[in-house]
Inverse folding.
């Protein structure tokens, strides 16, 4: 019996990945023949795609600010050169054999709210240009409800548990859990698949995350901070 979804940012592990209905992978880490093998075993592959941050070399679409956790440069989402760059990445992933795309770094409503319309345009362009079997959005709550018309599923990353300083994992404080619950209730009213991705390092915290996700109609996957665990 297969499990619903996995997020894995390593390479290989085809046999273990075959145990999932959907897997989110780094597009550069897998060859077309490996993707074909997974498809033949009934696993739908989604290639990772960042829409508002760029880890590449300096480029004209970069903002001066960088993500303090992962180092990528924030971008001007509406810059036509960035749009063209992202669309090319999306086309390459689909052409390589990925059946869909995982759209990351969508939560810019607090940092660059003026870019939200550009982000919606970019997601719509990805859908039209590549015709993927499945689009999964990570958060993007500032884009609701329009986002639900453009994607097939929404992921609530770090819904119940998170990585904290010094390499520890812990549940969110009660006040944050309440805020997340209110967002989850809003998501339940939309016509999209719902997933949760939580971070934990012990059985108790894993069980808490999975149980809470089920309460809000989400299929849950639990891993470490760098998604190296299946």
């Amino acid at each position: 019996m297969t499990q619903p979804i996995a997020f894995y940012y390593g390479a290989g592990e085809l046999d273990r990945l075959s145990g999932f209905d959907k897997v989110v992978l780094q597009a550069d880490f897998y060859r077309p023949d490996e993707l074909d093998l997974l498809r033949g075993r009934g696993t739908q592959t989604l290639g990772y795609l960042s829409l508002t941050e760029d880890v590449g070399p300096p480029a004209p679409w970069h903002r001066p600010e960088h993500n303090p956790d992962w180092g990528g440069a924030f971008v001007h989402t509406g810059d036509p050169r960035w749009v063209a760059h992202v669309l090319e990445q999306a086309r390459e992933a689909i052409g390589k054999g990925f059946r869909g795309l995982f759209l990351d770094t969508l939560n810019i409503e607090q940092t660059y709210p003026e870019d939200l319309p550009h982000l919606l345009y970019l997601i719509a362009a990805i859908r039209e240009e590549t015709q993927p079997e499945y689009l999964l959005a990570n958060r993007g709550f500032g884009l609701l409800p329009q986002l639900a018309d453009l994607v097939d599923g929404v992921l609530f990353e770090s819904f119940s548990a998170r990585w904290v300083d010094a390499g520890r994992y812990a549940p969110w404080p009660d006040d944050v859990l309440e805020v997340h619950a209110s967002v989850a209730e809003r998501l339940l009213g939309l016509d999209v698949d719902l997933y949760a991705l939580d971070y934990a390092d012990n059985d108790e915290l894993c069980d808490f995350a999975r149980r809470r996700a089920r309460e809000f109609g989400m299929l849950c996957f639990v891993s470490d901070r760098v998604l190296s665990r299946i």
Q: What stands out?
A: The helical segments are 14-17, 32-40, 80-96, 116-130, 174-188, 203-215. The first strand starts at residue 3 and ends at 7.
